[in-house]
Amino acid sequence: MPTSTTTEEQKLEQKPEVEQVEIWKCKEAECKAWVRKEFVTEALPNCPLCKNPMIRSYRHVPITAKKGNKKFLMGKRRF
Ligand SMILES: [Zn+2]
User: Fold this and answer.
1) Helix, strand, or coil here: 46?
2) Neighbour tally for 41: CB within 10 Å
3) Cα 45 to middle of ligand 1, angstroms
4) InterPro entries of this UniProt entry (predicted)?
């Protein structure tokens, strides 16, 4: 099994506001569908849009979700 992920990782820019997550993305180049790997339970998911097979990849996403989570917890403690 060839591993091409290392070269992919080296190309990544190192910005503090984003994190790298594992995703499944659609095999079709013209199809923009992708989903976080943690949300997928199937071993080999199919694209929800065009039904083509999906492939493992990586994607940069902003870490704003975690910040929002913190804010929420602080809001709950207000009493
Ligand atoms: Zn697709």
Assistant:
1) strand
2) 6
3) 11
4) YdjO
Tokens of 41: 């339970």
Q: Is residue 11 part of a domain?
A: no
Residue appearing with tokens 């659609």 = 26
- CA 13 to centroid of ligand 1, rounded, Å: 26
In the block, which residue shows the tokens 């506001």? 17
Can you give the residue range of the structural domain that contains 65?
21-76
Q: Is there a domain that residue 40 lies in?
A: yes
* Residue 2 within a domain: no
How many folded domains does the chain comprise?
1
| pLDDT tens-place string over residues 29-55 | 999 999 999 999 999 999 999 999 999
What's the token pair of residue 6?
Answer: 């290392």
Percent of all residues in the chain with a pLDDT value above 90, rounded to a whole number = 52
Residues in the chain: 79
Q: Is residue 6 part of a domain?
A: no
